[in-house]
Structure formats: structure tokens, C-alpha cells
Amino acid sequence: MDQIQIKRLEVFANHGVLEEENRLGQKFLVSVRMGVDARTPGQSDELADSVNYAQVSEIICREAQGHTFRLIERLAEHLAERILLEFPLVQSVDLEIEKPWAPVRIPLETVSVTIHRKWHRVYLGIGSNLGDKQANLDRAVELLRSDPRNRDLVVSGYLVTEPVGEVAQDDFLNGAVEMWTLQTPTELLDQIGRIEEELKRVRTVHWGPRTIDVDILLYDEILLHTDVLTIPHPEMHRRSFVLQPLAEIAPYAVHPVFRKTITEMEQQIRKAE
Fold this sequence. Notes:
This protein has helices spanning 19-24, 39-44, 53-66, 72-86, 133-146, 185-198, 240-249, 262-272, and strands spanning 2-13, 26-36, 92-99, 111-118, 120-128, 150-155, 159-161, 172-181, 213-219, 224-225, 230-231.
């Protein structure tokens, strides 16, 4: 990926654990390496096709001076998010904050923190079989789209499917969502929990009826397993009601374990039926 860099931008601001740091302020040096596609502006020679580093510098100064944080880690997180949100052409950010006047009684040149943040491609499965099913799915998508940390949502058509399991219940309406997010898998799972809570999902019966069901299917190409979350979704390769709408919007997305496209897995299930 191409890069635009700003090195050691000097900002006088009020951040620190100590009271006098917040009251008197001190110097910070901010360096940013932004992942971009430089080929288009390299050919067009138009600023509109590039990232205006003067504007990025102004935003760094404005945000650093307009807030007071105890930790430079928090300042770094805030600045990286502002850059990624305000400049759509920036795909990733490596940001370093140096604190040369850090209150340390041992001689040193500087204290710094460096972070890497980027947009992540995520695929979600959504389903509902209680109440107004389409309205439930539409509302879940609306809530995802309303969060500025999510962008470029693509939603499949909705598919009527029979329920899985032995519980007698109504048919499901299922779909899939592709989006880009700044959230970590855990943060995204927390947001899904809030969406399901707003739509009054009740978890009383395993594989039972529900107003809304939102599952993280794929997140970049990561493999993740915790007590509360497994990515890729452990059942997605067995479920036609997941793969069929997903194949509509991401036919060539590749499952990071089986190394098969969504279309290939969906066709495999069709042949087995």
C-alpha cells in the first residue's frame, strides 16, 4: 500500500496524568503514516484525488488542543479515529505520539506510543422470525449504518428459509451484510448485543424464535476463538440460508479455513441436498 507521511508535527497541548500537565501543557510530536492509493493522484495530478496533508495536520492540532486526556494512548486512539473518519481515501493509519517533556526524573530523549488502525471488511448474517421480520432486519441494518465507525454497507436481498432445529416456529427471513468497520471483533460483538437488545431479542430457547439474529461471519481473514466469539462463524459453511444471501453480495470472498469461495461452499451444499 502507498503511504503519505507527516513526521513529528509539533503540537502544544494539555495531556497527562499529573495536574500540572493538564494545567500548564507541554510539547507533543505527532507522526502519521497513512495507507492510501497514490496511483490515481499520481496520474491525475489533482489534489481532489489525494489526501490533503495540510488538512490532516490542522485536524491533528485541533483535536489535540481541543481535548484533555490523561494518557497519550487515548490521544493516539482519538487522533487515528478522526483521521480515518474524516478522510475516506485513508485506508490505514500508523500514528506515533512522542512526549519529550515527560515528567520522568531520569534523563531520556522522549517517551512515545505507536498504534496501527485500519478499516476492516466484515460480513454479517442477519435473520428474524418474530414480528415484522423485514422491519426487524431493516432496523438492524439502519442501526449498523448509523454508527460512523461502520461504512459502505451492502445488503443482500432477504431470503425466506425454514428454521433449523427441533423447535416448532415460523420461517425465517435471512440476509447478509458486507461493511467496513473500525471496530475490533469484540467491539462489534458488543454493538450487535445492543442492537439485539433494542430489538428485544430474548435468549430462552437454543435455536428458538427471535426478533433478530446478527452473526459475525467473516472479519478480514482472521481466525479467532474465545469464550464468546468464534470467527469465521463455525456453522456458516453448513448453512445454505447463510451462504445463499452472502454469495449474492460476496461470491468470491474466501473462507480463511477451507480456502473456498462463498459460491463454491454454497454450490457444495446444493449438491449435497
